[in-house]
Amino acid sequence: MTFKAEYIWIDGTEPTAKLRSKTRVLADGAELPIWGFDGSSTNQADGHSSDRVLKPVFTCPDPIRGGDNVLVLCEVLDIDMTPHRSNTRALLTEVAEKYADQESWFGIEQEYTFFKEGRPLGFPIGGFPAPQGGYYCGVGADEVFGREVVEKHLDLCLEAGLKISGINAEVMPGQWEFQVGPAGPVEVSDHMWVARWLLYRVAEDFGIAATLDPKPAKGDWNGAGAHTNFSTKAMRENYDAIIVACEALGEGDKPLEHVKQYGHGIEDRLTGHHETAPWNKFSYGVSDRGASVRIPWQVEVDKKGYIEDRRPNANVDPYVVTRLLVDTCCSALEKAGLV
């Protein structure tokens, strides 16, 4: 007897990486081996030396094929078994281990947009739908488009055992969101990448494309982000730690350092309009969706909790955003003696 293992990896396409996958048939009970692929076809190698290595790092049940079949998320290695330059997970692992004692938690809100026949789902041919306003968390065929895909995706993520925690329709027609977390930095990122793969894969079956474009429709339409909720043990117990983390994110060159790595096309989305702060101005505030970083109102009331970094694009690499937040905030909390 055999089972199918779908090896999934992140390629080297710039400025925004793509997901790739291929299937391996293995004998029942077999361990998942390392595997190779043609890196010259994924922007991860030159043709004269094209072999690259897939190292399994996270496995879950395959909810599409069912049975004993599995999804296998992999890191990309060079043939000397060191991390490939596109391997952002390896960089995160180092930082996560360094600050493991601070017990960082994340919840990432992944917005995305469905497209069909070259336009956002719900946009009429040659025109525009009614202005945004009624679509957010809407109900009814005139407000919501693509729900059957969204519900199927949610079911598949749950069957795979991913830490998906919710879904909702977003502000623009054909735009949706799912949330992953709470979980540690590596776990939330692994689960997010697999959830993205499942989104693209299930949308295939409906003849629909899902995109993480941060500004899928030009004009007076909301962009698509990946708002990232973050806390440490100290932040979950102490409001002073909340403020230290916010101040650290706004200190010196940190705002630009983060924004430059928060996803391609961020200037098109972070304009100061449509519930965003300008990309080149850092701010934080309580219950302020126009700030770079929002402190939820209940956090101020409870004097403990978490913060929401509202800057990351929908197309951000979760391994990168979690690494940056852990590194910046945890080092500041350590210096402040709040660990």
From TrEMBL:
Entries under Gene3D superfamilies matching the protein: Glutamine synthetase, N-terminal domain, Glutamine synthetase/guanido kinase, catalytic domain
Keywords: ATP-binding, Ligase, Nucleotide-binding
MF-aspect GO terms: ATP binding; glutamine synthetase activity
InterPro entries recorded: Gln_syn_GlnII, Gln_synt_N, Gln_synt_N_sf, Gln_synth/guanido_kin_cat_dom, Gln_synth_cat_dom, Gln_synth_gly_rich_site, Gln_synth_N_conserv_site, Glutamine_Synthetase
Keyword set includes ATP-binding: yes
Record-linked PROSITE patterns: GLNA_1 (PS00180), GLNA_ATP (PS00181), GS_BETA_GRASP (PS51986), GS_CATALYTIC (PS51987)
GO biological process: glutamine biosynthetic process
Domain spans labelled GS beta-grasp: 3-81
EC id: 6.3.1.2
Location of the GS catalytic domain: 88-339
SUPFAM superfamilies: Glutamine synthetase, N-terminal domain, Glutamine synthetase/guanido kinase
Catalytic reaction annotation: L-glutamate + NH4(+) + ATP = L-glutamine + ADP + phosphate + H(+)
Signal peptide: none
Keyword Ligase in record: yes
One of the Pfam families matching this protein, by short name: Gln-synt_C
Cellular-component GO terms for this entry: cytoplasm
Domain of life of the source: Bacteria
Protein task: Catalyzes the ATP-dependent biosynthesis of glutamine from glutamate and ammonia.
Family the entry assigns: Belongs to the glutamine synthetase family.
Quaternary structure and partners: Homooctamer and homotetramer.
Protein name: Glutamine synthetase
Organism of derivation: Planobispora rosea
